[in-house]
User: Fold 5-formyltetrahydrofolate cyclo-ligase from Microcella frigidaquae.
Amino acid sequence: MAPQRDSDPIAEKRALRAELRERRRIRSQHERDAATEGLTRQLIALTSTLGPSALSCYLATRDEPETRPFLSWAVEQGIRVLLPVSRDDGLLDWAPYDSDDEGLDVIGMPVPTTELLGPIAVNDVGLLLVPAAAVDRSGMRLGWGRGYFDKTLGSMDRRPPVFAVVYDSEVHDALPREAHDQGVDGVVTPSGILRFD
Assistant:
């Protein structure tokens, strides 16, 4: 779905998010399992190429591309993994991933139950893997509308490489955008890695 001239990006985003949520919701378990296998392979390849000693990622919800097998691999490799924890003020705290236990944050997203670190903890990572509803071929990321990652990415002085994680069908030619939207350096899907200039 490409934005149209003189359109309302807020309404377009809302409609596109609803469509993408529904597509994710009806994805079969077989499709999810195949996507998890491919995505894990691609995330390992990206991380192995970039070689960060620390990275940030997220714990997937039921409908998101699954990240837990990759996170387990990263911890086994000795890579420090930080996961986002939503705050009431619209910012993100971070918590180390230890794969032992999970809870829910203020908006109901899965989070680790380890110590809570402040928003600046993410400044020490060498790779940011962020959730998205979709990404376009210019690198524009469509989030889920709460702005947590746009605020985080927009506030970083030294941004490491940022890659959105989506299903293959969620890479679009163009997406509606607003002034506050933050782009990404690349996208990881179950079938590959796409980098943007």
Summary: The longest strand covers residues 80-86.
